[in-house]
Amino acid sequence: MPMPGSMDVGAASMLLPPGLTHPVGAHMPPFGFGIVSLGDSAPALGGDVVAGDVAAALAPGFGGVPMAPGAVVGPAAVVPMVPIANGPHGMGPIHVVPTHGAAGVASVGTHTAVVHMGAGGPHVGLTDAQATAAPAPMAAPLAAALPATLSSARQQPQPQPQIKAALSGAQSQRMDGGNAQPVSQHSKAAMARAHTHYVRGEYAVTEVICQAIVDSAPNRADALLLLGAAAYQRGDFARCAKCNAEAIRIDPLLAEAYVNLANALSQLGAMDASVAYYLAALRIRPNFREAYASLGACLLRSGDVARAADCYEHAARLPPPSAALLCHLGDLRRQLDDHNAAVMCYESSLSVDNAFAPAWAALATAASERGDVSRAFALSTEALRIAPESPEVLAMYGNLLRTTGASAAAVEFLSRATNFRRTCAITRANLGGALYESGRLIEAATELRTAVALSPHCAEAHNNLGNVLRDLGKLAEAAGCYQLSIQLQVSTNASRAALVAAAAATAVPTAAAAAVAAAARAGVSPVVLEGTGAAGVLQNAAAAGVSQLPPLAPPVALLRALETPSAAARMAAAEAAAAAASASTMIATAESPIAPMLSFQAMGFEPGSPSSMRLATTYTNLAGVFKALGRAVESAVCYSHVANLRPNCPETQKDAASAQKDLGRLDEAIVFYRRALGVKPDMPDAYANLVHSLMCVCEWGHRTELFVWLDALLRAQMRHGQMPSVQPFHAMAYPLDSELVKDLSKAYGRHCLLQAHVALVTLATTSAAAAGNSAVMAATPPAPQASAGLYDTMLLSPYRLPHAPRRPLRSGEKLKVAYVSSDFANHPLSHLMGSVFQLHDRSEVEVTAYAISASDGTAWRRRIEGTVENFVDVSSLSPYAVARKISDSGAHICVNLNGYTKGGKNEIFVYRPCAVQMSYMGFPATMGADFIDYLVSDAIVSPWELHGQCYTESLALMPHCYFCNDHRQVHMDISPPLYPKDVDLAEPRARIGLPTNASVIYACSNQLYKYDPDTFACWTRILRRVPGSVLWLLRFPPNGEARILRYAAELGAPPNSIIFTDVAGKTEHVNRSQYADVFLDTPMVNAHTTGCDVLWSGVPIVTLPMRRMASRVCASLCASMGLYEACVAHDLADYEEKAVRLGLDRTYRAALRREILMGRWTQPLFDTRRWVRDFERLMYKAWEIYTTGDTDDERGIKSFAIPPMPIPDVTEDEYRAKWSCDALLQAAVQAGKQPLLNQ
After folding, report:
1. Which runs of consecutive H residues, i.e. helices, occur in 1073-1112?
2. pTM of the entire structure?
3. Strands 103-108 and 815-821: what pairing?
4. How far is residue 1105's CA from residue 1082's CA, in Å, rounded to a whole number?
5. How many structural domains does the chain have?
6. Please, how many CA atoms are within 13 Å of residue 134, restricted to the half-sphere of its CB?
7. Does residue 995 form part of some domain?
8. Where are the TPR repeats (predicted)?
9. Can you give the CATH number for the domain in which 631 is found?
10. Residues 845, 734: one domain?
11. For 383-439, how does the pLDDT look when each residue is reduced to its tens digit (9 = 90+)?
12. What 8-state DSSP symbol labels residue 564?
């Protein structure tokens, strides 16, 4: 199937679905008198043409505006309004490799590009005996990452310049002002030669001959007509316009000159003026089919698809019947979603010429779009029968195979197509896409690199090469490809916008004005309708009566403006050029996370347009690579660009929101989530993330309704077996039923099980394929049943991991413990457990820390690496490989320190590397998974009566608080005074922005997502009841500050009673916590690490335990400090009373503070060594239960509690001695404290 994030390769460089290569209306159909159609020519994406770079030399386009193959490249191709010194769009100088004197020659199949060196720069011409043949179907795009409405199976040629054969004597002797100019026989012969060279595609030679004729006979309209046509073919549209204007002056009824002039003006961006001249040609010759077709193409470029189709249909009705024109009309009908009419057009085309292969291909494409694959293949087979050796048909069939997933067969057909056109970038790019889809990444990279070399300005090829490099793991190189693709696309569109802006700024009457003026000259009353632009012009002309409009006069003002741009034109061009120049820096700019759409629109990208969708595809790819490279800010900017380019795509809005959310830019995330839900209300993930973002910034409007809907959503998802949209870690802070939260964890546990199974099946099949061993395939583990874990299904599998022998430890044998975490870094886990790993009794326990994340380079990581007995970095290994490594070590017990938190790899535990597996610290809730045997907790956090309601694991209860900390080892330099009067706190409080005259400073340094309206209302009541009190909060995140202050005012909190300060580093945060008087905890999710920080600083806490684990931790912290009665409330009213008493009773508050500070030494909470001994006893007990069978559970587990050890009494004098300055310094040295941790 097509690769995600890929871009289609088509002549107009637009995003198309598989099997559909070229957009309708990018070019006009050929009528046997015009420009060569090259089929698989490279798209024009703002490229100079390099002689020898054949695909680029033959590319239809300049500055992103479709133009004929053989167009002038280099300085001569630059319209004066857009002065660019080094070639189009500043893409660098043009390189020409001369082969014969001053010319270079290159070939593509039967096509030959001749590069002529002239004073104005290199000119490219074509020689091809089949120059006027109808184009065959193009190869399909590399892939379709996004849907598109433009879908034609062949290249649409642009409007063709009209020429005549050598004119008769009567025709050539037309008068100008009554002065006849006879035509000599020599001139007639010269015109015949010029016409012959033109038909051969030798446009430069044609120009030379015609110019000589005009020099000798200035009033030769036929010579001027042919000279202008040759100039048009070379891309010199300004010269074409001048020649045809002069021809009109000589012969006001020369309809071909009006059409050619209109074509040139259209290419120069003067769309409205070009419409007026097409209409003038139709006035002269009402049945001028080519004028109708060219007018249709012009209207199509202006976006008026319906009127364009009308023009094509009128042209198609005129004799003689044209298979190509009918086929292109079908393409337009498909673009208008009138598929039945489109099919009728294709069938009519075949009735004209049953051997017209493009019509068969178009019918095949239409059938493929409707899902009728069998009919599509039947029609494609007919196209192959008609043109079996056509590279275009071969490529089309290959790409049709790609849409069905038959990538290997597609490679065969695309390879054959490539053999015919080895230097065709598009065919090679499509072959590269098929190879990519076949998993042949190296070959795909080779083909795409070749395509890029052939057409260095093909943005799609760069994009798709980036995809291949990304999958090869070459992320930095892939990012470079995506960035170059973006620069090419933006440069192309900016240059097109510059042309349009410059043309609009010239002193040219609009086509509407021209039509009205013409009507006035004809004596017809002008009718001005509301339509604007080309569509409005057509309405006005129709209202005035086209048949009564006389020919328009030559556009003297426009021609003069082309030669000497006006100030306005130069300014418009300069602005557009500046916009193009800034394109390369846009993707790395993070000043505004939501990029203003105006900048894209100024460069020609309208939201939702094909070019915008194409650019969005590349930005999406680049965003993913930036994210993988850890460049989150740049990734978020890219996602924002995608959302703005595709405002009606809910997925892009959601992706942008998630990127902003990951950066903590929650207000921006909320905007994007709301946009996504506005487009598609039925997006569970977007809704769940919107709710979480709103709670993180304390946006409590409609909070009750939001959670009622979220509750219903989660229950419906789990009822239908879907993955819940709420993460278990987020659910801890939500007012949801405990059973529902437990079921949520169970669903995530099942997801881990299935993920592990998929990975194992992949491993098995890969191994079997590599070994050619069917026995290995037979041993692939079956899919796990709902009632069984993957471990149970692996019993007969070679992938089952062995465990340590199930027996009691022998004398002198150590208990082997494996700690697994992604948070051995500057993370709360390392702040809390940094000393735990080194404090284990190495004579009894062998500890190995397995790091599943790469080093962050901080002292926290280095400390653990240097102090733990064994440290293994397994960040680059798969979960199964990590599990095997743990199993091979003979570990008895494995401890999961992540759970359902960021960075966790729970699949490791699905594979059962150890017989006994525990969850601890990282995730304070049930895992809901049978691959976790024990949850380490304590009797206050997890009371027995809540076991069945909240937990699926057996409970292993610590004797005191289960929540360990490292404050004695890391923060011994923070020693607040026993009595507040011992030190003046005014100066340090003022330094961090706290008032010095407050009676009491209440504080809460928890993250804002833990707040809830009821608790906050309680806080405001406390402030009202304690005069002069203030509440100190953190901007955690900053987005919530304004909302909190607004709620406070609404609830009647005293003015200026709530103070926010910024979040501080770890050491500063712990140190400044002592400046508060009372800490107010959040009941839904307590202060955990912060609770330890606050108690270490000597500040009393008021907390209220609820039912779930995360809501009871602070109560356990307080109990381990002997403060349960003083600090733990039994309901919200009691919470308020305890806080008010602490605020009003200064003596009571000081006594409690003194008790807390003494408890740092006398109570078990901060005794890390004691905690480690207790944890070792807990693990020994778990192994004992497993080996002795002291349980009814077949897994050898059961809940248990470790009894406490005696705690020695410490007097106040002993405490003072312990905490003298000398004792502090000595203790710090003995603990091996690293000063870097406090920086």
Report:
1. 1089-1096
2. 0.69
3. unpaired
4. 9
5. 5
6. 20
7. yes
8. 255-288, 289-322, 357-390, 650-683
9. 1.25.40.10
10. yes
11. 999 989 888 789 888 988 998 889 999 999 999 999 988 888 888 999 999 999 999
12. S
